[in-house]
Amino acid sequence: MTSNEGNFIKRLQRQKEDALEFVVDTYLPIIKGITYKVLIPLNDQGVIDECINDIFLSIWNNSKKFKGDSTDFRKWICTIAKFKAIDYYRKASKEVEFSSEHMDMNADLSAEDELILLEDRTELIKLINQLEPVDREIFIMKFFLGLKTEEIAKKLALTNTSIDNRVYRGKKKLYQKVTTLELGESRI
Amino acid sequence: MKDIYELLNDVNVDDHEFEEMTVTEFEKAKVKSALKKSISKKNKRRGWKMNVAAAALVVGLSTVTIGLTFPAYAGNIPIIGDIFRFLDNEKTGLYDNYKEYSTEMNLTQDSNGIKITINDAVFDGETVAITYSIESDRDLGEAPSTLHLGSADIKGATGAAGSSHVTKVDDYHYVGLDKITPFGLTSDMADINWKIRSILRTDTGEKIKGNWKFAFSLPAIDSQFQLTNQSVEKNGVTVNIEKVAFTPMSFIVHYNQKATQEVQDKWHEAYIELEIKDDLGNVYTGEGNGGSGKDAYTISWSKTFEKLDPNATKLIVTPHVTFRIHDETNSGGVEITADGKEKEISIPVKSGVGREEFIMDDIVIELEK
Question: Which residues of chain A lie closer than 8 angstroms to B21, CB-CB?
């Protein structure tokens, strides 16, 4: 028995390796497109290849967490790809050594960038889980998928201002949670 | 608590905003090979129970399947999923639908540090196509050959034509496609017996001895025949399309050629190439399967073309003819006599010079539906 359009999600969730092959065959073009778009400025083919492999491995390891049909599956793996690629980009650009004339760029990181950079991801996810569903979606789009405020506003049919407000309030809420953590609890 | 993958499941993105990039079969193979490595590392620890079960199963079955080996464990990811397409490299599209209709074999034989696995095989009624992977503990060069000691043998065939193509995937991994067209086979079942005694490194000439034996049977896949018997004649050459066989992944044109005495006196060879398109403007690429006949001018051929467009109602066949003169630079042969001696075949003198090409009138085949 081999995987096809109709059964590959089930087979993937049952950890059948041919389903993973089917996923690579079907979705490598889009995954490659997403990864290249984000990582091409790094000019490092090795990182791109590593990221692509990591994306498929994450799909394989987390397939049970996916719910939906093949249209949803495509969306899901696209978001994973985008999230992973941005993650790789952040990690790689952090490692780049800045020469002195570029030092000011380094100093000018926004608060949320720093939050992400400093943050151990699991803790941030723990915190994001405590937000309202809409805010949660906005945070993921903004910080994990690197979407612009206007794009998020368009998707959720909200105004730019309301997105910014929600981000502001959400951040405040997160900081409160973080600062009220007791000694010995996880903290940023 | 939801983790990032569950959270991403709830995010509604527009996947049309992402652009696809072209991907070669080789890139797919590279990704799969890397994934296979990471996965098998992870799975090793919990694998023993399954192996015991598999071993028990093998013991149970081994009495009936002498000569066959089972892969080391179930779900063995082949290095490349679709070897047919990989080796075609998406150039012709001729093999695009082969994998779908072929039988998964997964027969593995290990010898002298080299593991050969037959992955898929298909018999379209005319040609047996076998894909296989080679996992080696040493470098075998860019294009090793398994063919130099004879290809697979098909029971009941009076002769055969074939081709073999092996390509390197990465260090120590190779994939191959062998095609055998048996002549004179009456059964619609192909009993294949394939013995490989050594692998030849084509770059160094080194031979790696071993013993890999495979035996299996393949039923011919369902195909529909349409008898045509339409012919066209020009400049002393007659081309006759005898029949066309339609399989789910291809169609096979059977044709023969004849030449007048005049042509035979003037030229050594009349070579026919068929160009096929349909009434919708699709051009079909094909690959010759070889042919046989009583002399160099009267030969029955068959040629396999890619899958027919289901909406096509006509096939338009245009034969291209090339007359050739043989000389020492482009031809040569030996005759092996009954007592085993080799005798050089001399090239008879003909009056033609060089080569001549011309195109014949179209043969239009109305497709029966």
Answer: 29, 32-33, 36
Q: Which of 2.60.40.1640, 3.30.390.50, 2.40.160.30, 3.40.50.720 is the CATH number of B224-366? A: 2.60.40.1640
- The size of the A-B interface in CB pairs under 8 A is 123
Order of strands, sheet of B207-219, starting from the edge strand that comes earlier in the sequence = B153-154, B189-200, B207-219
Distance from C-alpha of B350 to C-alpha of B331, rounded to nearest angstrom: 14
Shortest Cα distance from A98 to chain B (angstroms)?
31
Q: What is the CA radius of gyration of chain A?
A: 19
What is the value of pTM for the model shown? Answer: 0.51
Query: Least CA distance to B86: which residue of chain A?
Result: A25
Token pair of B244 as six digits = 């066309």
* Beta-carbon contacts of residue B57 (< 8 Å; ≥ 6 apart): none
> Does this chain's domain B86-219 share its CATH topology with B224-366?
yes
Q: Do the chains contact at B13 and A65, CB–CB below 8 Å?
A: no
Q: For the segment B244-257, what is each residue's pLDDT rounded down to a tens digit? A: 999 888 899 999 99
| B155 CA: distance to closest CA in chain A (Å) | 29
Q: How far is CA B193 from CA B107, B133, B199, B229, in A?
A: 13, 17, 17, 35
Q: Which CATH superfamily is domain B86-219 in?
A: bacillus anthracis domain (2.60.40.1630)
- Please answer yes or no on whether A24 and B2 come within 8 Å at the CB atom: no
| Chain A hits for B39, Cβ within 8 Å | 17, 20, 57, 60
Q: Which residues of A touch B96 (CB under 8 A)?
A: none
Within 8 A of B30 by CB-CB distance, chain A residues are 49
Taking the domains of chain B in order of start, what are their residue ranges? 4-65, 86-219, 224-366
Which residue segments constitute the domains of chain A, with CATH numbers given? Answer: 8-99 (1.10.1740.10), 110-187 (1.10.10.10)
Question: Given A24, A79, A121, which is nearest B28 (Cβ)?
Answer: A24
- At A62-110, the pLDDT tens digits run 998 898 888 889 999 999 999 899 888 888 776 655 444 444 444 445 5
* DSSP count for chain B of H helices, then E strands: 6, 20
Whether the CB-CB separation of B221 and B247 falls below 8 Å is answered with yes
